[in-house]
């Protein structure tokens, strides 16, 4: 593994370590900020704002990476010249999405009565995983779009996190942990399969399209 890939992998380890540290910190009791936000939003999920948050949650939830992953597989079948990159992106997407299966490790309860465990937020993992892989996709095949896609990915992830908090089914730290987990796992997986550094980083000066 060359030096740039090692740097990305090390950064991934740092994010994963931060995810684990946060999870171990909050599994016994919520942070003061967690508790304050939960108290302030108590019962809001029954109001119109909660209805809107539910719609956002459905759109940006677990269905998002599934649809995106299927799209990448179809594109790989149709665009054979890019199949290698697209299939590696699917692998990164899968690795990122699977971080939500770590919930039993932390065994954290939700702010209100709700099925399943809390840390990390699976919905935020879904939104962040899709966003991260979309950024990598653009970095390889449409470098000029990276900035806009990155902004949209961050906005979607934050919106999804806000929706889950408004619904009272996640603490703020659950959503932060999801973002840390996806970033760390994504960087490790992407560097491991040769997607980092991206093609955009290797283009000659002035060349911005695949």
Automatic annotation (TrEMBL):
<feature type="transmembrane region" description="Helical">
    <location>
        <begin position="85"/>
        <end position="102"/>
    </location>
</feature>
<feature type="domain" description="Phosphatidic acid phosphatase type 2/haloperoxidase">
    <location>
        <begin position="92"/>
        <end position="182"/>
    </location>
</feature>
<feature type="transmembrane region" description="Helical">
    <location>
        <begin position="52"/>
        <end position="78"/>
    </location>
</feature>
<keyword id="KW-0472">Membrane</keyword>
<dbReference type="Pfam" id="PF01569">
    <property type="entry name" value="PAP2"/>
</dbReference>
<keyword id="KW-1133">Transmembrane helix</keyword>
<dbReference type="InterPro" id="IPR000326">
    <property type="entry name" value="PAP2/HPO"/>
</dbReference>
<feature type="transmembrane region" description="Helical">
    <location>
        <begin position="149"/>
        <end position="172"/>
    </location>
</feature>
<dbReference type="InterPro" id="IPR036938">
    <property type="entry name" value="PAP2/HPO_sf"/>
</dbReference>
<protein>
    <submittedName>
        <fullName>Phosphatase PAP2 family protein</fullName>
    </submittedName>
</protein>
<feature type="transmembrane region" description="Helical">
    <location>
        <begin position="178"/>
        <end position="196"/>
    </location>
</feature>
<feature type="transmembrane region" description="Helical">
    <location>
        <begin position="122"/>
        <end position="142"/>
    </location>
</feature>
<keyword id="KW-0812">Transmembrane</keyword>
């Amino acid at each position: 593994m060359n030096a740039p890939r090692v740097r990305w992998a090390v950064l991934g380890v740092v994010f994963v370590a931060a995810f684990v540290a946060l999870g171990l910190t909050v599994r016994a009791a919520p942070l003061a900020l967690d508790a304050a936000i939960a108290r302030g939003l108590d019962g809001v999920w029954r109001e119109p704002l909660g209805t809107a948050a539910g719609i956002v949650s459905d759109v940006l939830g677990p269905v998002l990476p599934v649809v995106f992953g299927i799209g990448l597989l179809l594109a790989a079948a149709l665009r054979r010249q890019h199949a290698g990159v697209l299939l590696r992106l699917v692998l990164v997407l899968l690795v990122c999405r699977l971080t939500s299966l770590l919930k039993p490790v932390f065994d954290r309860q939700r702010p209100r009565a709700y099925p399943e465990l809390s840390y990390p937020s699976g919905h935020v993992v879904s939104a962040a995983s899709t966003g991260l892989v979309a950024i990598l996709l653009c970095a390889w095949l449409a470098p000029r779009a990276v900035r806009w896609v990155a902004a949209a990915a961050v906005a979607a992830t934050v919106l999804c996190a806000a929706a889950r908090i408004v619904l009272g089914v996640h603490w703020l730290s659950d959503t932060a942990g999801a973002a840390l987990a996806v970033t760390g796992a994504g960087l490790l997986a992407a560097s491991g399969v040769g997607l980092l550094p991206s093609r955009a980083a290797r283009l000659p000066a002035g060349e911005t399209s695949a």
